[in-house]
Each structure stands twice: as C-alpha cells, then as structure tokens.
C-alpha cells in the first residue's frame, strides 16, 4: 500500500461470520467439557476416566483447531504470505498432536478394560480421517511451506490440497457425530429415548458441531472472501515462474 493510503479492511460480513464461528467453537468445547464433567465423571489419565480424553481431544483438535487453521487465509488477509502459511501449518500440526493424544487415550483405555479396537464404523471413519489428515499435512508442508516444489507442481497440487482440506474437515465432524451416537448408545441406551438430560446435552453438542462446520464452510466457499494476493506476491510468483521454468511473466497461471 502507498503511504497515506487507508489501511485495508475485511470484506463486509466476513468479520461477523468469523466471530460467530469462534463463538460456536468455544461453545462446543464448553459443551463437550460439561458433558464429560457432569455425566461421565471428568477426564483423568491412567484411570477409568482415561477414555474421556478421546472425545475432548478430538473435538478440540480435529474440529475446532482444524476449522481455525482453514480460516487463517480468510482472517489474515493482508499479512505476508509466508507468515500466514506458517500459522496455517502450525495450527494443523497442533491439531494433529492433540488428536494423537486422543487416539492414544482410547487405545490404552480399551486395552485396560479388555474392549476390542477398530470394529465400529466410527473407529474406521475416525482413523481413516486422522491418517489422511496427517498425510495432507506432510504434503502441504512439502509443497508449500518448504522450498523445492516447482511453480507448476504447486499449481497442480493446490486445488487438490484445498479440496481434501475441506473434505477432511467434513469427515472429522462426521466422525465426531458417529462417536457421540456410539457413546450414548453404549452408556444410556435404556434411557436415551426418554429425552434424559445427558442425551439432550450430547445431541446439542452434535448440533453445535454441524453449525460450526456450516459457518466455517460458508466462509471458505465465499469467492469474494478469499485472500487477495498482495502486489509483492504477484511479482515474486511471476519472477519465480520465469526463473524456474523459462516462462514469460505474461504467460498463463
């Protein structure tokens, strides 16, 4: 921006939707904590309550932090691209670490209680989502964060990266919904149909998960809310393309 120019602003409505997403995210975390604390005894490691770390970690990592990582390019619209990429990768990496803790918790809890692993639809979808998410993170770092990939290769992979990013976010929420249903059927199957408070609270958590996903998805798919390339980024990308592939700056992108 030239000296004296007004500071750049966010498009109309973007800040409001991002604020709503964060309010929903914090509410779903609080609701998860309330469910586990009020009805499931809380969370403690190396105890009969170790399993409860699983839903808490998955909601925090695979939903809330993953959703925020996807919103980085909408929120930080005018910061240097390199910094935005690093924050995007950092949030995804943190989500993976927290999710891994949740996976360890459920496997250790099952082993202690003699419960079989990986037989339910929830476990299949959840583990597939985590493995694909880990692969997506490694590929994203390799293509975009660290030097090495050519301009054309990055251009080819970018739409795939965007698609799988949104798809994995949807799969994460779906896996959480399956997990909530499975847990309720295991714990309160006899009273679930009578609208008991625990069932209502857990159902509310499911609705909040869907609402959070819808708001984040809406922000991500609004074309006019996408992060505009800065002038220096356009110049650098064209120079890089010319130097590495011998194409003229006026060539197609």
UniProtKB/TrEMBL annotation:
It is a multi-pass membrane protein. Keywords: Cytoplasmic vesicle, Electron transport, Heme, Iron, Membrane, Metal-binding, Translocase, Transmembrane, Transmembrane helix, Transport. Transmembrane reductase that uses ascorbate as an electron donor in the cytoplasm and transfers electrons across membranes to reduce monodehydro-L-ascorbate radical in the lumen of secretory vesicles. It is therefore involved the regeneration and homeostasis within secretory vesicles of ascorbate which in turn provides reducing equivalents needed to support the activity of intravesicular enzymes. One of its GO terms (molecular function) is oxidoreductase activity. Residues 20-221 form the Cytochrome b561 domain. GO terms for cellular component: chromaffin granule membrane; lysosomal membrane. SMART domains: B561. Its main location: membrane. It is found in: Cytoplasmic vesicle, Secretory vesicle, Chromaffin granule membrane. This is Transmembrane ascorbate-dependent reductase CYB561. The chain crosses the membrane at residues 12-36, 56-76, 88-107, 127-149, 161-180, 200-220. Its cofactor is heme b. It catalyses: monodehydro-L-ascorbate radical(out) + L-ascorbate(in) = monodehydro-L-ascorbate radical(in) + L-ascorbate(out).
């Amino acid at each position: 921006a030239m000296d004296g120019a007004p500071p750049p602003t966010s498009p109309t409505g973007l800040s409001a939707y991002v604020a709503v997403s964060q309010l929903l995210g914090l509410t779903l975390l609080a609701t998860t904590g309330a469910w586990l604390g009020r009805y499931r005894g809380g969370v403690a490691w190396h105890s009969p309550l170790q399993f409860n770390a699983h839903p808490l970690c998955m909601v925090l990592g695979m939903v809330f932090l993953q959703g925020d990582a996807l919103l980085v390019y909408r929120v930080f619209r005018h910061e240097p691209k390199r910094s935005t990429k690093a924050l995007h990768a950092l949030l995804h990496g943190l989500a993976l670490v927290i999710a891994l803790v949740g996976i360890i918790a459920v496997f250790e809890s099952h082993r202690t209680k003699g419960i079989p692993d990986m037989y339910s639809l929830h476990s299949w979808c959840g583990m597939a989502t985590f493995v694909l998410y880990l692969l997506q993170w490694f590929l994203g770092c390799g293509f975009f964060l660290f030097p090495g990939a050519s301009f054309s290769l990055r251009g080819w992979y970018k739409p795939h990266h965007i698609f799988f990013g949104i798809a994995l976010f949807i799969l994460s929420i779906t896996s959480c919904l399956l997990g909530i249903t499975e847990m309720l059927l295991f714990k309160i199957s006899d009273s679930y149909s009578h609208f008991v408070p625990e069932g209502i609270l857990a159902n509310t958590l499911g609705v909040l998960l869907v609402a959070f996903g819808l708001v984040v998805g809406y922000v991500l798919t609004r074309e006019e809310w996408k992060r505009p390339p800065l002038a220096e980024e356009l110049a650098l990308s064209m120079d890089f393309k010319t130097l590495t592939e011998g194409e003229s700056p006026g060539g197609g992108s």
